Amino acid sequence: MEINRKGTSYKLKGNQPKVGDKAPDFKARNLADSVVELNDFFGKVVLISVIPDIDTRVCDLQAKAFNKVASELDEVQLITISNNTKAQQAEWCAGKDISMEMLHDSELNFGQAYGLIMEELGNLARSVFVINRKGEITYQEIVSEMTSEPDYDKPIEAAKEAREPNESGALK
C-alpha cells in the first residue's frame, strides 16, 4: 500500500490488518513510561487513532477531535499513538484535558505489527482502527493522503456498535 504526501508516494512496509482480522498485539509506552500492550484492553472496545507527528496541524486536529469523543464514549478505550518522543507528546498534552491513552511508539513495535511504517519519512501512516471486545478489527481506515484528516464519524459509529448489547442483553 502507498500513502501520498502532497503528490509524493511512500510505500508502507509490511501487511496492514483488515476488518475481520484478529488485531495484532503490540507494545508501546505511555506518558508514565509504562509498557502498554493491546492485550491489556482485551474485553474492551478499543479505538486506535494513529498520527504521523503530534506537532503538525492535521495531527493536532485529529488528536483533539478523538480526545473530545473519548470523554463522551462510555465503554470505549481511546488510544492515540505516534512515534513522537515521550517529551514531544507530554508537551502537546500540557494544559489540555486529555481523556485518552497517549502512546509513543519510538521502537516502532506498533508500526511493524500494523504495517504502517513509511520508512522514507520515519513516520507512521495516519490511520484509525476499531477493535471489538474479542480483539477483532471491526473498522479500519488508512488515510491515503497524509495531509488529510480521517473520517471521524465512521469509527465512532463502529465503536458504538461494538459496545452495543446483543439480543440477550449481554454486552458484545
In brief:
Helices cover 23% and strands 28% of the residues.
What labels describe this entry?
172 residues, alpha+beta, Glutaredoxin, 7-stranded mixed beta sheet
Describe the structure in your own words.
- This protein is α+β, with helices and mostly antiparallel strands and 172 residues long.
- It has a single domain (21-142), classed as 3-Layer(aba) Sandwich (Glutaredoxin), CATH 3.40.30.10.
- Helices cover 23% and strands 28% of the residues.
- It is built from four helices and eleven strands, in the order βββββαβαβαββββα.
- The longest helix has 14 residues, at 57-70.
- It is globular, with a radius of gyration of 15 Å.
- It starts with a strand and ends in a 9-residue tail after the last helix.
- The mean pLDDT is 91.
The shape is: globular
Q: Which CATH class applies here? A: Alpha Beta
Calculate Rg over CA atoms: 15 Å
Taken in chain order, the helices and strands follow as EEEEEHEHEHEEEEH
- Order the strands across the largest sheet as they lie in space: 4-3-7-6-5-10-11
Average pLDDT figure: 91
Report the total helices: 4
